[in-house]
Every structure is written in structure tokens, then in C-alpha cells.
Amino acid sequence: MQRHLISAADLTRDDAVLILDTAEEMARVADRPIKKLPTLRGRTVVNLFFEDSTRTRISFEAAEKRLSADVINFSAKGSSVSKGESLKDTAQTLEAMGVDAVVIRHGASGAPYTLANSGWIDAAVINAGDGTHQHPTQALLDAFTMRRRLVGRDVGLGRDLAGKRITIVGDVLHSRVARSNVDLLHTLGAEVTLVAPPTLLPVGIGSWPCEVSYDLDSTLPKADAVMMLRVQRERMNAAFFPTEREYARRYGLDADRMAKMPADAIVMHPGPMVRGMEITAEVADSDRCTAIEQVANGVSIRMAVLYLLLGGNEPAVGQARPSVSQQPSDRRPAHTVSTDEEK
């Protein structure tokens, strides 16, 4: 693992599988009476959000607190940023507080990279979404969900998504989720197809490691997972399609289209969902839709990322502490994780 997590493209297969395997260990914490680990006790993590967020911000905060870190939530609204303070000055303020990690969401593509490589701050930087560029932890939680559903939980760790066929549908042009998923899924061996109207595909799409189609119906029968993307009107300054009704007719997923998918194929959505446009309520509420599952898995993935960047370099192992006679020192190896129940 590198020191920062800025882009899904930076992850090797071994890095990605290590995170997914560690997340499996972290997911077991949610089933315990006490859902906390002391792993990051004494560490300080700042959630630095310059854009509005619900799922990502709360998910990171939950992950940090379950690892016993001290958490500082920073919102641009109501802070000195609204008075014109620069990212550099904000970063140096955090550095003066002695933070260990910064989780940053920013509207400008490249802001997390700048923060990580500027020398302004000596802390691990985790990209929680930057402009239309990258959202690596979203791609990781999506891959984690796919691996559990399509490969299985009981087949052992160390598995990737080799040979799985993933279709991503919708506003690819403005989607950092699509970019991150294409990068990570390709690394994990999956075959990715992007489906969108030509106006919602970025320039240079031909160089991406994926296929491109304009016909949703033709891709559904061979897809193991179909991920629907929200149309990001807040990033649009022109008309990219005639009407919402026309978009839903050609690129929306309804029950009839879902019936064309293989019986064991799943429907995914990174949220927030716009019901009636890219996805109907019937599909969103079906057992095949993993949207809520993805939210739960996001906490496990973000725990794994924080643990690996700040706490250890191997998967967390929930082993019981040896007895005093077996262990002369009370110090635990860096790669093992104890629970509060053991304290």
C-alpha cells in the first residue's frame, strides 16, 4: 500500500485484494455486541468536505469511530473557507493540529493529489471524491459488494473479479464513480461495458480499458452486474438529452429490462437514486438491488483503508490475545487487531 489513496488507478491487484480481504475482517466487527476496535486509538482523522455529502461523510465517520480514532469533521460551509481561505492555509491549520490523516472531498479535480504532494501537510490523504475525477473508496466498496455477491463469501480470500462482466449505465461524463470503477474493475480482471448517450461520454473514452455501447438492451443479457448512475444535473451547463422521459425510456432500468438480465445478476447504484429516471422504484426495492448493501459495505471498506494506511500492512486478524504465559510482552504484532472485548 502507498501512503495515500488518491486514485483507483494507483492500486495494483495485490493492493486492491489486500483491501478487500481486510474489509472482510472488518465486516465481522458489525456482528459483534461491541462494534469497536482500538486499532487507531490516539490517532486523529479529519474529514475535510468542501462538497455536500451524506453517505460518504457518514460512512467515513462511522469507520473512523469504530477504529477508535479521534474524529474532526470540517465543512466548508460556516468555516473560514467561506471567507476566502485557500486549501493551502486550511491544510497548514490542520498540520498545526497534528492530524494523522485527512479524508478530503473537493469540487476541483486534483485537489486531493495537490494536498498529498504539496508538502503542506504530513498526513495520509484519502480521496473521498474530487470533481469529476476519482472516488476510489466508492469503487472499492462496489468491488467488495460484487465479490461477495458474484464470487461468494465462502470461497476464501485473495479472490478478484476475473471474467465477471459489469455494465455501467448513465452519466459517465460527470461521474467520478464510473472512472474509478473502470480503473479498479479492470485491475481486478473484470470486463466493463459503459452504456450512455454519446453526449454523456467523455472525450478520449476510446483509451479507457472498457467497451462502449449506446444500446442498453443489448448488454443486459450478458451482464453479471448492472450499475446505474445518476444524471448529475448540478454539473451540467447545457442540454445533454431531449427530456427526462426520453432518457428514462432509453437508459432507465425498469422491471422489464431487469427481466432480461441473467437470474443471478445484480443491480447496483452508488446513490443518491433518482427514482423514475435512471431506475424505477420496483427495481430499486427489489432483492436484486444492492444499494443499501453498498452503504453497509462502505463502512467496512473505509475501515480497511484507514487501518492499512495508519495501522498495519497486512489483513486484520481477529485472534484472541495469547495468555501471559504464552506472550512475554503485552505488545501485539502490528498486523493483528484486538477488540474492546479483549481489553
Description:
- With about 350 residues, this protein is an alpha/beta fold.
- The chain folds into two domains: about 10-135 and about 295-340, 3-Layer(aba) Sandwich (Rossmann fold); about 135-295, Aspartate/ornithine carbamoyltransferase (Rossmann fold), CATH 3.40.50.1370.
- The protein is built from eleven helices and nine strands.
- The protein has helices spanning about 15-25, 55-65, 85-95, 110-115, 135-150, 175-185, 215-220, 245-250, 255-260, 280-285, 290-310; strands spanning about 45-50, 70-75, 100-105, 125-130, 165-170, 190-195, 210-215, 225-230, 265-270.
- The strands form two sheets. The chain has a five-stranded parallel sheet, covered by helices on one side. The protein has a four-stranded parallel sheet with strand order 2-1-3-4, with helices on both faces.
- Helix 6 (about 175-185) links the parallel strand 5 and strand 6.
- Helix 1 crosses helix 11 (about 290-310) and helix 5 (about 135-150) packs across helix 11 (about 290-310).
Describe, in short, the structure shown:
The protein is α/β, with parallel strands linked by helices.
* CATH H-level homologous superfamily name of the largest domain: Aspartate/ornithine carbamoyltransferase
**What's the β-strand tally?**
9
How far from one another are the termini? 29 Å
Order of helices and strands: HEHEHEHEHEHEEHEHHEHH
Adjacency order of strands in the biggest sheet? 7-6-5-8-9
What's the CATH topology label of the largest domain? Rossmann fold
Q: Which structural class matches the secondary elements?
A: alpha/beta
Q: List unreliable stretches of 5+ residues.
A: 317-343
User: How many helices?
Assistant: 11
Reported CATH architecture of the largest domain:
3-Layer(aba) Sandwich
